Amino acid sequence: MKVYNTLTRSKEDLVPLTPGEIRMYSCGVTVYDISHVGHARMMVVFDVISRYLRFAGYRVTFVRNFTDIDDKIIRRANQEGVDAGEISERYIAAFRDDIAALGVQAPEVEPKATRHVAEMIALIERLVAGGYAYVVDGDVYFEIRRFPPYGRLSGKNLEELLVGARVEVDERKRDPRDFALWKSAKPGEPSWPSPWGPGRPGWHIECSAMAMKHLGTPIDIHGGGDDLIFPHHECEIAQSEAATGKPFARYWLHNGMINMGAEKMSKSLGNTLWIREILKRHDADAVRLWILGTHYRNPLEFAEERLAEAGRALERLWGPVLEAKKYAETAGADALPRDLAAYREDFVAAMDDDFNTPQALGVLFEMARALNRRDGRSAQDFVRGTRELATMLAALGFREPTPARADMPRELSEQVRSLIRERAAARASRDWSRADQLRAELARLEVTVKDTPQGTDWEWKGLRATEGS
Fold first, then answer.
1. Choices 3.90.780.10, 3.40.30.10, 3.20.20.140, 3.40.50.620: CATH for 18-259
2. pTM of the model
């Protein structure tokens, strides 16, 4: 298996630090608002990477954090007149609802920054003691010039770095490019006691401390969106390696951004698409298929028609699997015919080449077409082939359509899913009146709903399904 390592700008053989095991960390979300489709891409990408590594036989420990203390969270809390913790918990719950709806598995560990402040303080103390960090009026800064490899990940030359929009200008710094490890307390902000006085951690130190706490050092894979390469991941490397004297992560994987025509999607440009709004219009697995149809390192273009096309393509992929359910014959334990077994080999070859999901999907579409042709195939071989196809689809995180999703008229199925998603959002925001209205709308469509910890169970004319499982 080969992966593209941002650190070396080349594809490399994936060689785990411990044979058969992968320790992987991916940066999570800053929880001050609901999550958008850009978040969906990163979550789906690393969900598929972790799933495929398991499919390939690795024991995976996947950690993805929550940044639950940050300037944006504090600003939102002050605007609403509530505690910052209330804001972060509200949007953690919303995030979990949204990505569960997308079929993204929860990682083994999902740490919150506020639960790891003691580890962050200990890490900063090591940096101060080692001469890599300095204290100014209760603030602590990492001194970039003390770490000559700074810039290696992003390819930026330290001497050419200019003070830009993402670098705070502070005359107290020894160098304007030095970054904050600890910020002294300000009125109206949450704070924790520290050797330098009350304050809170800087953004970069959070991920280093949480990754080290739960995965040790070094780790195998560190991932995130390519907008995090600089300064976030660059700073993580500097502070982690300065503190430990060891490499922080062996492989750095980054997904590309989502573009809205000629522009990158961003909140600052006002062109954000929320996950829950997209899921009102499109099947969650159609969203996944659209995301995986472009290699994870490349930019992804958003267009409603592409999502609609993905929904139709999804039906073609699952067609033979659903058709096979009509057969009473068991598949038996015999090996697959050679022509069908070759599809698995091609699928594995594509995924082993830096998780090339577009190529892997091409293999699965061709396999679905071959199964549909039958070509004189026995019923047993047909069933065996569809089981193999379903296994590979599951390795990419696709969920087999439930009977209700498969047999309902498509327009009604889409309407029902939209109403259920909207009702879940209303419940998450405690808008019980709207939730009841939506339940009544579903009842008029002959759909009954029951809320469970796994999602919303619903039934239509004896057909059952779960949304959000």
1. 3.40.50.620
2. 0.84
